[in-house]
C-alpha cells in the first residue's frame, strides 16, 4: 500500500505493518510536506509535495509567502525512478487517478482549484482546468466508484484570505498577526463537495462549526470526514439527508439546514445548471 509521511516522503506499508521508504527526494531536493498519493492500475504512483520549503508545522507560512513551492511527482515502482511531473504549484494537496486512467487530478489549496494532468493519450504531459472558483479551499479528493469525486473543503472562502492571495501587502499584515499569535478567526464552514467526472458541481455539504476538513470519503450511504485538527470523524447519511434544491439564481441555490450529525448542524447545497434567462 502506498502512503506518504509528511517530512519523509513516499512509503510502502505492507499488510503486516512493515514500512519501507520508497523515495525521500527528487531532483536533489528533499521532500518537506508530502501530502496525498494515488496509484494507477499498472502500478505508477502519483503524489503531491505541497511545499518543498515548509514543513506541516509551518505550512501557514507557505500560504503567507504566496509562492509556488508545490509539485506533482511520480514514482515508477518498476524502475524506482522519481520524477517531477508538474512544478510551481501553490500548495499542491489532494491527488486522484481518473477511473479511465487517462489523467490525474490535483488540488491547489490557496488557488481554490483542481487541475487535470494527462498521463495517457494525445494530451499526455499537458494540463487542463478541472474545476476552479471552488466554494472553499480544497484538501484531498477521492473518487467513489459511482461517477463522483468528493473534494474536501477545509474552510469556506473569506475576504481576508481572498485578498491575501491577490495582494502581498495583505499577506505581510497577516504574517505579522501570525507571528504574534493574532490570527483572524476565518476557519469555518468546512465540508465536502461532490462533482461529476467533468468537474460539474453536484452537491455541497458543510457546517458552520466545522473547519480544517482534510478528506471526505463516501462509503455506502455515508460521507465520512477527516480533519487535521479535530479528534473526531463526522459522518453524514446522505440518503436520509438529501440536499435541498431551491433555485433562485443561475448555477446557485439557497442553503437550508436539515439536521444534526454528531452535534453539528450540516447544511447542504444542491447545485443545478439553470439557464440564466430563467
TrEMBL record:
One of its GO terms (molecular function) is hydrolase activity. It is found in: Vacuole. The keyword Electron transport does not apply. Pfam families: Str_synth. One of its GO terms (cellular component) is vacuole. Keywords: Glycoprotein, Phosphoprotein, Vacuole. The keyword Nucleus does not apply. SUPFAM superfamilies: Calcium-dependent phosphotriesterase (SSF63829). It comes from the Eukaryota. Residues 35-121 form the Strictosidine synthase conserved region domain. Belongs to the strictosidine synthase family. This is Strictosidine synthase conserved region domain-containing protein. It comes from Malus domestica.
Amino acid at each position: 500500500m502506498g502512503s506518504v509521511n509528511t517530512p519523509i516522503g513516499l512509503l510502502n506499508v505492507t499488510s503486516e505493518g512493515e514500512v519501507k521508504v520508497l523515495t525521500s527526494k527528487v531532483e536533489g531536493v528533499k521532500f518537506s510536506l508530502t501530502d496525498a498519493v494515488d496509484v494507477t492500475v499498472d502500478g505508477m504512483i502519483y503524489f503531491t509535495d505541497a511545499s518543498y520549503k515548509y514543513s506541516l508545522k509551518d505550512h501557514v507560512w507557505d500560504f503567507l509567502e504566496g509562492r509556488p513551492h508545490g509539485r506533482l511527482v511520480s514514482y515508477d515502482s518498476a524502475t524506482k525512478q522519481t520524477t517531477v511531473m508538474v512544478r510551481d504549484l501553490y500548495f499542491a494537496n489532494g491527488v486522484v487517478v481518473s477511473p479511465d486512467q487517462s489523467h490525474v487530478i490535483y488540488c491547489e489549496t490557496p488557488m481554490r482549484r483542481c487541475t487535470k494532468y494527462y498521463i495517457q493519450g494525445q494530451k499526455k504531459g499537458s494540463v487542463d482546468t478541472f474545476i476552479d472558483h471552488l466554494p472553499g479551499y480544497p484538501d484531498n479528493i477521492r473518487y467513489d466508484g459511482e461517477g463522483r469525486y468528493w473534494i474536501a473543503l477545509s474552510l469556506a472562502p473569506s475576504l481576508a484570505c481572498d485578498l491575501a492571495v491577490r495582494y502581498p501587502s495583505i499577506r505581510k499584515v497577516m504574517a505579522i498577526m501570525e507571528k504574534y499569535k493574532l490570527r483572524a478567526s476565518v476557519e469555518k464552514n468546512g465540508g465536502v463537495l461532490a462533482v461529476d467526472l467533468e468537474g460539474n458541481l453536484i452537491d455541497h455539504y458543510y457546517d458552520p462549526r466545522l473547519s480544517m476538513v482534510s478528506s471526505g470519503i463516501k462509503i455506502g450511504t455515508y460521507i465520512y470526514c477527516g480533519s487535521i485538527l479535530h479528534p473526531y470523524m463526522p459522518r453524514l447519511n446522505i440518503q436520509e439527508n438529501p440536499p435541498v434544491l431551491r433555485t433562485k439564481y443561475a448555477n446557485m441555490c439557497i442553503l437550508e439546514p436539515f439536521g444534526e450529525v454528531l452535534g453539528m448542524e450540516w447544511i447542504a447545497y444542491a447545485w443545478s445548471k439553470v439557464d440564466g434567462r430563467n
